[in-house]
Structure formats: C-alpha cells, structure tokens
Amino acid sequence: MDKKIHKSIIETKANLKSLSDSKRSYIKAYSNIKRSVDLILDLKHNNLPIIPEINFQSIVNEKISIDQIKNIKDRGCVIIREVFDQALVKDWNEQITDYIINNDYFTKAKEKEGMDQYFSDLKSGAPQIFGLYWSKPQMLARQSKSMAITKKFLNSMWDANSPNGKEFDSNNDFIYADRIRRRVPGDKTLGLSPHIDGGSFERWTDSAFQKVYESIFNGDVDSYNPWKAAFRTQTQEYNSPAVCSMFRTFQGWTALTKQGPSDGTLSLIPIANCMSYLLLRALQDDIADDSLCGATPGRPLLISNEYHKELLDGLVSIPEVLPGDTVWWHPDITHSVADEHKGDEYSNVMFIGSSPQCPKNLRYAKRQSEHFLLGKSPPDFAAEDYEVEFKDRFSADQLTSLGRNQMAL
Ligand SMILES: [Fe+2]
Question: At residue 362, does pLDDT exceed 90?
C-alpha cells in the first residue's frame, strides 16, 4: 500500500476512535445486525419473500403502499418487475449476441486481457463481464421512459435535502454507461465474492464520507439514516480504473434472460443499515492500527468471514427474475455473484444504475459523452475501447431528447 495512504489510515483511525466510545457503539450496531440477520434467516426458513418486489405498473399507477416503501427502505434493495416487455428484451439479448459475434469481440478481448484490474482482488477472479457500453439495446434501455420512471421512483426513496441545498435532482438522471454480464451455463470458475462498491477505505478516510457517517462515528448509531443524501455527492473516491465516479442512489441491472438462485447470479445482504456495523468493526481493539478489515484503495470493499461473519450470514440469493425485470440495491449494500452457474441457460444482465442529476454526476456525464461520441470505453473503465470500430454501435443521432439530456449533450 502507498505510504501516504497507510499513514492516513493510521491517523484516521486514531482520530475516529477519539470521537466516541467505539466499543459501546459497536455493541449496539452488532446487536442491530444480529437482529436483522435473524429476521432474514427466519423469513428464509419459512420460505417467505425476503427481497421486496414491486411491479412497474404499480409505480406508474401510484399504487405503492407505505408498507412497501418501508420494506424497501429497511431491506435496501428491490426487484421492480416488468419494466420492459419480455419479448422486447429477448430480442435485445439476441441483438447483443450479434453485436459481440459480428464484431469479433472474443478475439479482441484476448488481445487486451488483463487491462481490467478492478475485480482482480475478489477471491473468485474475473467475472464474465463484457467491456461493451454502447450497443443499441443498452442505450435504448437507458434512455427509455420506463427506465426514467423507475429511476425517479428509486431516487424518491432518498431524502435529498442537504445543508447546501438539494444534494441531487430526484426527477432527472444521467446515464452511467456500464457493462454487460453474460454468464455461460455450467460456469464454475467465475463469480464475485461479497463486496460493496462505491468506495472502500474512503468510507473512513474521506471527509465527505465522514459527514455521511457522522452520527455513527460520533456514537449516535440509532440516528444514522442510510437514506439521507446529505454529502453523498461530495465524496471523493480514490482515482482508479473502474471505480464509479458517479453517485448512484441505487446500483442495479436489467435481466436479459431468466435467472434465479442456482443460475450463478446475484446475492444480496438485504440490510440497508449495515454501515454502522462495518465502519465500527474496523475501529475495534482486535483490528491492527493500519487495518480497515481488508479495505484497500481502488478495490471493492470486501466483506469477509474473517471480519464480518455475522453480517455474511444474511447473504441471500435473489429470487427468479425474467427478461425485463430489474434488480436494485443501495450503494452500501453487500452483494456477490455465485461461484457456480448450475442452470442450463445464459444468465445475462445489463448493468444500469440510478445516477441522479447533480454537479458531481454532470462532471462525469460530460467526460463520458466525449467517449460515447468516439465509441470509446467510458472514463471510469479500462480503456479497452473495443467499440470504436464496431459495426452497429448506437449513435448520437439515435438519442431521444430525454437521452440527450441524460447524456449531458
Ligand atoms: Fe459490485
């Protein structure tokens, strides 16, 4: 580790420990996590739904109940079904296959092997994730009205008020162009260990993150609210390829194929308030002064059995989803991709998160649009630039007015 970062971790920990009785706070956070995990295990044992599910049409018809919203806020994740028509998405999936084959992606990917370093520390190694950003189906999904309605609903889970005015505009999003996962049936070697994106060591060391988590560090664990957006868009992430530069109210993906618990797909720990436990864990006496329980700059925040056993017990698979269903999770939520794909069909998704309009996201959207116009990989990702020469790439003249606005063009 960089000497400067090493020193900053030691200093930050000493400083955070001086703010309050972190042992007492941790005991409180620990018992909250135990209670939440017990509830999840209880639901699982009784075969009851754990991850909240709603239908897209009930958002359109404003038929989401207060109880449903509370459940989403407690669980920090939600499946929104039928955002897109199944037949349309099946066609999109085929179009993406053609895009890959007709442009000889596999040969080109072999030549550029090793450029994408983000996932290299995850125990299970590199996933079957394609460095493709600008296919027609991806852009059509991103700029669609139904996606805009979905994201507006998701953004509304957050309290956007901040001491500096609104933290973001809940009604409007920028596109964050991300990749595609296509998982071959039978695959055993590829998966993602449990992790959290959007910042690892920064969650302790960065001054804006310290404000986001102020009540936790100050010993008032009960008043921490994971849905308060204040200072969330002010955080500065460690500069590294493939660490998200946008603030996302939710990470998410759209299912391109049917996939469920045995299909090598997503698992989540559906507890919105897990940060009190995670942050305070690293401040306990059994953790070395220079350790943040494995948090490393420029990497996902790993959640491990070594440090976080009681939280990991709450890891559950998503239920079966169909093409056109979407899965969403709060940026503090632990997630993983199963090591083994035991199903017999591809499990494919388009990563599409919710990234509301705010100055931070505008800065990135502008840089991203320059890359889009040239067909290059977006600035956050390894500069593999496969699509520069690709046939049938989505072009700027295919943007709707909504799409142009979402691309800051
Ligand atoms: Fe992730």
Answer: yes
